[in-house]
């Protein structure tokens, strides 16, 4: 090790006695180049049941990981749970598994770039995007503030961020929004035939996405303002809770990232899928075919 490549302290990178990384509970050899992320731990088995062969399985808290072969391609499927805070753990640990030498605790000289695709569910904010359709995110706009804890200005689309802040008359008491683009190569490979546009990543499911049950909203106009944004022929098409962190951390660490969601609710039309599991199954089959082709 050298001053330019120092040893990473045990408190910063926690490796279990088994040689697995702390939260994900997997070894470096358990990670494939193509990784599918899902929020729901039960969805991991739904996807890996389609594999030709499962090589490794692990579970720790809400994180379930299965790695195996589909169409003779090595593939990892991993659950994250919900929220950008969990994405922070998962992406940093996935990167450490492939780009840090666990023996010397130093960064490897040769960088490995992963293809990381999130398959999720979300709610559309545009009336013309029906439930049970698929949406691919060209950008994630983070309303959560997570990326602001990193040296990240060089990966942020500041022009889009500024346009969003101006259009929504963003309030100073809310986290500063940041916008990050997806991987063009993954978008071209996987997104054709889908609804495409900007995704708003919220730090919660209820108030941060404009839902009201018993607590009044501080800024009830925000969802309508977001839905009316037009930026270089693009618009915000949906709400979810992970994409901005996935795109931001992916770019910072040199990985390719894309989110594709099944639309299970339409907020503009107040509609909800009668059986979104069918849409999820179709999306799984489509992405598995495209990612391994």
How would you summarize what this structure contains?
With 293 residues, the chain is α/β, with parallel strands linked by helices.
What attributes does this structure have?
26% helix; 14 strands; Rossmann fold; 293 residues; two-stranded antiparallel sheet; globular; alpha/beta; 5-stranded mixed beta barrel
Write the layout of secondary structure elements.
Elements: E1 34-38, H1 41-48, E2 53-60, E3 63-70, E4 73-79, H2 84-99, E5 100-101, E6 106-107, E7 115-124, E8 134-142, H3 158-168, E9 178-181, H4 184-190, E10 195-201, H5 222-227, E11 230-231, E12 234-240, H6 243-253, E13 256-266, E14 271-272, H7 276-291
Helix pairs in contact: 2-6
Describe the structure.
With 293 residues, the chain is α/β, with parallel strands linked by helices. It has one domain: 3-Layer(aba) Sandwich (Rossmann fold). Helix content is 26%, strand content 29%. It contains 7 helices and 14 strands. A 5-stranded mixed β-barrel has the order 7-12-10-8-13. A two-stranded antiparallel sheet has the order 5-6. Helix 2 packs parallel to helix 6. The termini are far apart.
């Amino acid at each position: 090790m050298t001053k330019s490549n120092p040893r990473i302290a045990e408190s910063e990178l926690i490796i279990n006695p088994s040689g697995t990384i702390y939260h994900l509970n997997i070894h470096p050899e358990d990670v494939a180049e193509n990784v599918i992320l899902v929020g729901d731990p039960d969805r991991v088995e739904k996807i890996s049941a389609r594999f030709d062969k499962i090589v490794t399985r692990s579970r720790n808290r809400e994180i379930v990981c299965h790695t195996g072969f589909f169409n003779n391609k090595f593939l990892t499927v991993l659950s994250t749970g919900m929220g950008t805070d969990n994405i922070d753990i998962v992406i940093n640990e996935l990167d450490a598994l492939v780009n840090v030498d666990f023996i010397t605790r130093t960064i490897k000289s040769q960088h490995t770039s992963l293809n990381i695709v999130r398959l999720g569910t979300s709610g559309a904010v545009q009336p013309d995007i029906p439930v049970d359709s698929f949406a691919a995110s060209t950008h994630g706009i983070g309303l959560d503030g997570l990326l602001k804890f990193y040296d990240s200005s060089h990966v942020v689309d500041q022009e889009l961020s500024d346009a969003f802040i101006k259009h929504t008359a963003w309030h100073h008491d809310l986290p500063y929004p940041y916008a990050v683009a997806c991987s063009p190569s993954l978008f071209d490979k996987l997104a054709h035939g889908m609804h495409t546009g900007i995704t708003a990543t919220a730090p919660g499911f209820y108030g941060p996405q404009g839902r009201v049950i018993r607590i009044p909203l501080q800024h009830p106009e925000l969802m309508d303002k977001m839905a009316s944004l037009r930026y270089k022929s693009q618009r915000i098409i949906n709400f979810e809770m992970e994409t901005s962190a996935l795109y931001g951390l992916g770019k910072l660490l040199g990985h390719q990232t894309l989110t594709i969601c099944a639309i299970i609710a339409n907020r503009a039309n107040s509609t909800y899928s009668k059986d979104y599991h069918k849409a999820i199954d179709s999306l799984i089959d489509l992405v598995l075919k495209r990612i391994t082709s």
